[in-house]
Amino acid sequence: GTPMDAEFFTAWIGEAARAVRAEKDRLTRLDTAIGDGDHGVNLDRGLTAAAAALAERRPAAPGAVLALAGSTLIRKVGGASGPLYGTALREAGRALGEGAEVSPAELARALEAAVDGVRGLGAAAEGDKTMVDALAPAAGALARAVREGRDLAAALEAAASAAESGAEATVPMEARKGRASYLGPRSVGHEDPGAASGALLLRALHTVAVR
Ligand code: ADP
Ligand code: MG
Ligand code: MG
Fold first, then answer.
1. Which residue numbers delimit the DhaL domain (predicted)?
2. CA dihedral sign, ordered 85, 164, 132, 188
3. Is 59 left (phi over 0), alpha (psi -120 to 50) or beta?
4. Low-confidence ranges of the chain (pLDDT < 70)
5. 178 phi/psi in degrees, rounded to 5
6. What is the structure's pLDDT at 2?
7. Distance between CA 107 and CA 102 in Å, rounded?
8. Angle at the Cα of 82 (from 77 to 88), degrees rounded to 5?
9. Which of 137, 140, 149, 171 could make a disulfide contact with 162, Cβ separation 3.0–4.6 Å?
10. What pLDDT shows up at residue 58?
11. Which ligand number lies closest to the CA of residue 42?
């Protein structure tokens, strides 16, 4: 299968940037309903900048790719999602260390580290109607699939599907973190924009793995 090397993770950021740009209006609409309407613009700007930084600096190891992408998101995105996704990527990069290639088990541990990073910074639990509701089920599904010995494509399909289901499951939730929480019960009935983008990022990872 596909080796998960620096090129693979660089391709992931590129595919994530493409997917977020294609879905920018939907993310903006979701954030207009329960936030300030900038989530699509924020992530588009951040991921486009991250892809450009990677093209320029060409880090040689997966951990360094994710570290640079994360730092770029933190620097370029003013909204809550910049530091949160930025921290997720940096923690994932740190978990991967300096190796030139990543195993499925290492990827699963890195995704768990990413979720822990988001939780550590934002203090959101599952059910609070945030990106955690997409990312945490994805990390769980990936770890389970790898433990069961599924191949990378199947494991990442399970992770992406779990993220998509998790994002859909935010619709009936009442937001308890971030701007949407200011709406209280009026946040019910809308998908969380960060959960929606989290699902896009996981789907992008599957897309590059099956290319
Ligand atoms: P802002 O709310 O500052 O405008 P964005 O619109 O880019 O930032 O991102 C909003 C998303 O960030 C939300 O939909 C939610 O998923 C996520 N988010 C906000 N606060 C938190 C938090 N404390 N923990 C986890 N995710 C959060
Ligand atoms: Mg916003
Ligand atoms: Mg904002």
1. 7-207
2. positive
3. beta
4. 1
5. 75, -175
6. 81
7. 6
8. 150
9. 137
10. 98
11. 1
Going from the Cα of 80 to the center of ligand 2, the distance in angstroms, rounded, reads: 7
- Taking the centre of ligand 3 as the mean of its atom positions, its distance from the CA of residue 30, in whole angstroms, is 13
The confidence score (pLDDT) of residue 197 equals 98
Pocket of ligand 1 (CB under 6 A): 31, 35-36, 38-39, 42, 79-81, 84, 118, 122-124, 130-132, 177-179, 192-195
pLDDT in tens, 128-172: 999 999 999 999 999 999 999 999 999 999 999 999 999 999 999
* Complex-level ipTM: 0.99
- Paired residues of 4 in beta bridges: 102
What is residue 47's predicted lDDT score, i.e. its pLDDT?
Answer: 98
CA of 183 to the centre of ligand 1 (A): 14
63: phi then psi, degrees, rounded to nearest 5: -60, -40
Q: Which domains does the chain have, with CATH numbers?
A: 6-209 (1.25.40.340)
Is the CB of residue 205 less than 8 Å from the CB of residue 12? yes
